[in-house]
Design a protein that fits this description.
Helix content: 25-40%
CATH architecture of the largest domain: 3-Layer(aba) Sandwich
CATH superfamily of the largest domain: P-loop containing nucleotide triphosphate hydrolases
Radius of gyration: 26 Å
Structural class: alpha/beta
Largest sheet: 8 strands, mixed
Number of helices: 16
């Protein structure tokens, strides 16, 4: 029976508590809070007795969640998961919590705290007794890394308090035992003609910019001058640097020209590999002036002008990334072979499925894969909910190509990573085979020959 609820942005902590409490723990990714506390609370599947809020939640989010859960589930116990810093008193005053738990607390201390709070909730009549289990920690462990906050005004009574009169007339929410929930699987999607390709990743540093650049390069081989690459990593996009281009204009100007095809053409920068680039805004603060709806209008307009529109997005699921995915026919989702990144990608997929924003064509890229890291490629599928489509090995050739200002697939087509990236290009356009005339290694223009 599900007994506890965890709302957190830490994939590592979520994985740890899932392993510790198994079927008794349901989790709600903190990313749902992007769409409001009510939306997050509505996603809770079963009635929890205790909610753990954190780590990595703000005071405002924790306060709103505590109030929302208390309204939806009267009597619920609230544990805030955070370090006990000097501002703890502010949290105690503003959040209706019952205990504070350090994210570094041992498994035994974590189990002990929840067992003690659970016992108080049962004896005070706030919750029903849990089903018998065999994996609860030692209740005598006082857990030195945790502290109970003095919000439990009344001490636990020796006998359970009588339930409210109305409770006897209403059926218990947990009276029936529900079957075990199946493993989450990413739903199948139907194929459509590729036009707009959004390259996305839940975290930064996954290699999506490299993939976006090489995808545009490969597609331009079969559709020269009919591919445009948009750097929509609004604050710190670096496609212009990777391609050794001088960015005299950027996405902010292109969005302003979204209604005029002639003006749009004046904002494009042509690359020598026969594709066009719209760089990121020239200054991070310009990101704030780019309206997501206007960016969506620009994407739609470019899709009528070019055969392929490739978009490098901002990590995560901000407004602009959601806009790009909403207008995309294809989504290329990039992750590394780490538990945190794989769990984050799964969370991203769950949100996109819920919002109905998963593109019709989906491609999962497992990037920078190397041996002896504790995980193998086969471990990715059960975490993500779908098998990776392209496996890209870690290679120094990626950095060498970026430093040379040349796309990887043209800098060294024999590099293992370049070959893997080429398979991604061919998933979009099977005719994109390498040709000798496209292979060119060169120095950056400002370096001595």
């Amino acid at each position: 029976m599900t007994r506890y609820l965890l709302v957190s942005r830490s994939a590592e902590y979520e994985t740890r508590l899932r392993r510790l409490f198994r079927a008794r723990m349901q989790t709600l990714p903190g990313e749902y809070l992007t769409f409001g506390v009510d939306e997050a609370v509505d996603r809770v599947r079963k009635t929890p007795a205790i909610a753990l809020l954190g780590p990595l939640l703000t005071l405002g989010e924790t306060k709103a969640l505590s109030a929302g859960l208390a309204e939806q589930y009267p009597g619920i116990g609230v544990v805030v998961v955070r370090e006990q810093r000097s501002d703890l008193e502010d949290w105690v005053e503003e959040v209706g919590m019952h205990a504070v738990l350090s994210p570094e607390a041992t498994d035994a201390a974590t189990q002990s705290l929840l067992a003690r709070l659970d016992d108080w909730l049962v004896t005070s009549g706030r919750a029903e007794a849990p089903e018998p289990t065999t994996d609860v920690g030692d209740p005598d462990d006082d857990g030195t890394t945790i502290s109970l906050v003095d919000l439990l005004k009344a001490p636990p009574s020796k006998t359970p308090a009588a339930p409210p009169a109305s409770a006897a007339e209403e059926p218990s929410r947990e009276a029936s035992v529900e079957p075990a929930e199946p493993e989450w699987t990413l739903p199948d999607v139907g194929g459509v003609r590729t036009e707009v390709i959004a390259v996305a990743a839940p975290k930064g540093g996954q290699g999506k910019t490299t993939l976006a650049v090489n995808l545009a390069t490969g597609l331009a081989e079969v559709a020269p001058n009919s591919v445009v690459l948009i750097d929509a990593d609004l604050q710190f996009g670096d496609i212009a640097n990777v391609l050794d281009l001088v960015a005299t204009r950027g996405l902010a100007e292109a969005v302003d020209a979204a209604d005029d095809e002639v003006l749009i053409k004046t904002q494009l920068i042509r690359h020598s590999d026969d594709f066009f680039v719209i760089p990121a805004p020239r200054s991070p603060e310009l990101a704030d002036v780019i309206d997501p709806q206007r960016m969506g209008a620009l994407i739609d307009r470019l899709a009528t002008m070019f055969r392929y529109v490739v978009i490098d997005t901002t990590p995560g699921l901000g407004e602009h990334t959601l806009t790009a995915l909403e207008h995309a026919t294809d989504g290329i989702f990039v992750t590394s072979l780490t538990v945190a990144s794989l769990r984050a990608l799964r969370t991203e997929f769950e949100l996109l499925v819920t919002l109905g924003l998963l593109p019709q064509n989906r491609h999962i890229v497992l990037n920078a894969v190397e041996k002896n890291t504790g995980l193998v490629v086969a471990d990715a599928e059960p975490i993500i909910g779908a098998a990776p489509d392209v496996i890209v090995p870690r290679s120094s050739g990626v950095l060498l190509a970026a430093n040379a200002g040349v796309p990887l697939i043209h800098n060294d087509p024999r590099d293992p990573a370049a070959k893997a990236v080429r398979t991604l290009v061919q998933r979009i356009e099977p005719a994109a085979y390498p040709t000798r005339r496209r292979i060119h290694r060169r120095r950056r223009s400002n370096e001595p020959q």
